[in-house]
Amino acid sequence: MKIVTDGIVIREQPVKESDKVITVLTRHNGIIHAYASGAKNIKNAKSTATGLLTYSQFVFYKSRERYVADEANAKEVFIGLRNDIQKLALAQYFCELAGAVVQEEEPSEEQLRLTLNSLYVLSKSLKPEAQVKAAFEFRMMALCGFMPDLVCCGECAVYEHEKMMFLPEEGSLLCGDCAGISKKHSVLTGLGATAAMRHCVYSEFDKLFAFSVSEAALGSLQKASEEYVTACLDRSFKTLDFYRSLCG
Length: 248
Hints:
The chain has 8 helices and 9 strands.
């Protein structure tokens, strides 16, 4: 079976002397794990196109139970990420998170678009890293079946409150009044971070990064998004740990 699709390499693993296995987030087939013969050889036409964080057009063949990357042509390599170790670490976290939540053999148009746009904004320093990270986390989780309910307080239905709280384990909001009688773990998001969270989840895709937030609210936004990922998936990410170590 022949598959022609574009996608971004989110993981590469060396095999033997010149081969590697790549994990690709594709537009039409979700996550694909493929064997790339000779791809470690810099003289091989597939070498650059099968590198980590490279967006390429692929021709895959499925042989028995294994995909083989027969052809690959690079379309974007995100040079801006490769010259900054902190940005590169965050980009690798995006890849690891995508690999954890995107399904195999399922159309993933929006997940691929989100990943590419996030990497572009990150590489060009168009928005603060924390903002790009939070937007990616919330939107990716929502796209992959973990949609939080950020419309209003889950108890009294009030839309805004100066002490609005986010419950990561519930994926919902509580106003300050209702949170005062709740024993559930929550993150104080107030007005600013709550508005930013809603934008990350509910905005039109083209406007995902088109918002501004104060430094204090950005800290709350990032804490809420990160804790939401942890609560939903119940796992840690080595790439995130490394990124945190670089942030100091």
